[in-house]
């Protein structure tokens, strides 16, 4: 499988770099979940070889609706790099993406390494701050047609993110969430993130232990989407989370 994993990582990497979508890997390959995480690891290694730095980890499929849509009961994780980071209020060219969407998230910051070997490790004690966030997702698959393993291999559609002002870590459950992009406005609640975004931290540790994904001091964790994702239209995309604050990015046509 090693040569196949490399070839599939290269295929997804090329799709991202050239903004040319690719058919589902599952159309012509039998890929298990372990293989999918191996493809993702190789994809991220290719980014690192080009000079990118991993700044964090993201969770996906954290809402019941998305899990049901994909027919799975397990969250998925991907990596965030410095090349994906857009400053709060900053601009990003939409030409960088294939068919980008934005979604509202809660971000957490790790103040110390997570000891994945310690089953009693208290992840919440390792978090020192939280912030409102926008995630830009951009599946590399044609027409968004992908399987569970496809999306894991594709680094969970990670393409960009922006962080609002940090505030001390605390309760973030049941906060009203508003996402605006172009003429679309979506209202939701942080309760859509596994019932409480803090639960995402625990789910993340379990998953990272299983899939050998390190969690380091200073890294950002995106806990998952609080509403459906909407197309990232030219203009401002903004997320507002009650009591947490606001973050926006401007997409340039
Ligand atoms: O962040 C996410 O929830 C991405 C997982 C689903 C992939 C997608 O909708 O492109
Ligand atoms: Mg997301």
UniProtKB/TrEMBL annotation:
This is 4-oxalocrotonate decarboxylase. One of its GO terms (molecular function) is 2-oxopent-4-enoate hydratase activity. It comes from the Bacteria. InterPro entries: Fumarylacetoacetase_C_sf (IPR036663), Hydratase-Decarb/MhpD_sf (IPR050772). PANTHER family: 2-KETO-4-PENTENOATE HYDRATASE (PTHR30143:SF0), ACID HYDRATASE (PTHR30143). The lineage of its organism: Bacteria, Bacillati, Actinomycetota, Actinomycetes, Pseudonocardiales. GO terms for cellular component: cytoplasm. It comes from Amycolatopsis azurea DSM 43854.
